[in-house]
């Protein structure tokens, strides 16, 4: 869940906050879950909601100075510009390709392939029909193939 929250926010601290908030809230509301088999998708959906809420709140509260760069921006910059150092990792090119996908396609790819979720679980988490999940997966695979063939890692 932490990795998913980080993929959504691209901010380690925000991802940690979102996951912690979700665990605390779920401990209080677990009794509302009717089907224990839905626990995983329920938790991921809640993490997604909380992360998106934190992102919205962060955008409205953020005040930036033109000449000053925050520590979070420096950390995010180092994550994205450290491509040469990551080349030794066999999955780094693929990870960069996935990171360059549009947000919806990136979420579907992440949940389906990296978190090993079924189409139904992805559907529940993203609150979209299963057919839409399948079409987004297909679109994401096509975009990823294009990006990898063209070595196009920019957004």
3D architecture notes:
Belongs to the sigma-70 factor family. ECF subfamily. Pfam families: Sigma70_r2, Sigma70_r4_2. Residues 2-59 form the RNA polymerase sigma-70 region domain. This is Sigma-70 family RNA polymerase sigma factor. Residues 98-144 form the RNA polymerase sigma factor 70 region 4 type domain. With 155 residues, this protein is mainly α. It folds into 2 domains: 1-62 and 72-81, no CATH class; 89-155, Orthogonal Bundle (Arc Repressor Mutant, subunit A). 73% of the residues lie in helices and 0% in strands. The chain has 9 helices and no strands. The protein has helices spanning 2-9, 12-29, 39-61, 71-81, 83-86, 92-99, 103-114, 119-126, 130-150. Helix 7 crosses helix 9 (130-150). The longest helix is centred in the N-terminal third of the chain and has 23 residues, at 39-61. The two termini are 24 Å apart. The model is unreliable at 63-90 (pLDDT under 50).
